[in-house]
């Protein structure tokens, strides 16, 4: 495919998908004439090309001034061949017309590269930005403030390590990094730290739209509640009952499957340049393998959050956030939180309770004779009862086992300061149904505590 066919069959379609009609001269000018200096040793024009360059496409803003240059190469060539040419066009347009430096793109129809000259190195992107995207980028570039001087809202976060975590990311953004990973123990305030960071980015003019990605609905609801509490004046999506994506909000909170469906839905077309900052919550999970389409679609500044200790984080997570040598942007461990004076977290004791049924299973051999007689009267074949201990609460339920577990816990657990109620405790059950059965047993055995 030659360059003309590449432009017609591939590049024009990519531009149209982003809302650029190449036949509308108010939006796109093809073969844009750029004045340039004569070749060395030449003082006057010998042909129409002397003292002139012709850009394949120039994308115009609503004010009809150049927003971006697109340099095209035929599909069989490496798109990078057009890199320096596109860069020259951008600087020469600014020299000729004044104003702001256009954004730079070069492509072979298959690979598209975006270069924000003077700010970031070129990066490969999924598609072209819309006109609104480019005008937003231009506004941010023109009006953003230095992040190293931006104050952090201490009514959102006030602990020293939270401030240090935010500063580490802000300083990294100033140094033109685009990927960050915060490793903070459960209970140390990852979400609030993230909200304070988002607040600083918005106030400093570095971000207008933020996406907070979570891996399940319960976490989405928690995040919505937290953003509403700490950034009440920033419009959020979704509101109750909203299904279709709204494009007039500042904070977007979604599960990976929801966002995957949105970017695949042509009726809800969402530009790959729609967001200025993305937070990937619980990034220790196998998110990249399952949802790499989402993370690969939006190429913007990205922050990963995880509570998984750095020594057991999957290698792919470090690669995803470009953490060299397995070192995250910032880490605050459980041990640091416990050993702080005063402590931010308290340590814990692990209590394992195992009944005879869990150790030996349930079979004719372990069932008492009177129980076998009762089962026979109920029409059950005792010979067919044979369950391993590991199958309890998965394939078979034994209320007596759960009762024994609850009773032993209440007898042996660490008590509160009054020596009556258990200290703060997590029961790890095998399923939601199992957890509800445990809850019911607590209520039956200890009604005086009123649930």
Brief digest:
With 451 residues, the protein is α/β, with parallel strands linked by helices.
Average pLDDT, all residues: 86
N-to-C SSE string, H for helix and E for strand: HEEEHEEEHHEHEHEEHEHEHEHHEHEHH
Taking the sheet with the most strands, its summary is: 7 strands, parallel
Radius of gyration: 30 Å
CATH hierarchy, class of the largest domain:
Alpha Beta
Strand order of the largest sheet: 9-10-8-11-12-7-13
Number of helices: 14
Overall CATH architecture of the largest domain:
3-Layer(aba) Sandwich
Please state roughly what percent of the residues sit in beta strands, choosing from under 5%, 5-15%, 15-25%, 25-35%, 35-45% or over 45%: 15-25%
Looking at CATH, the homologous superfamily of the largest domain is P-loop containing nucleotide triphosphate hydrolases
Total separate domains = 3
* Inertia-based shape: elongated
Structural class: alpha/beta
CATH T-level topology of the largest domain: Rossmann fold
Overall helicity = 25-40%
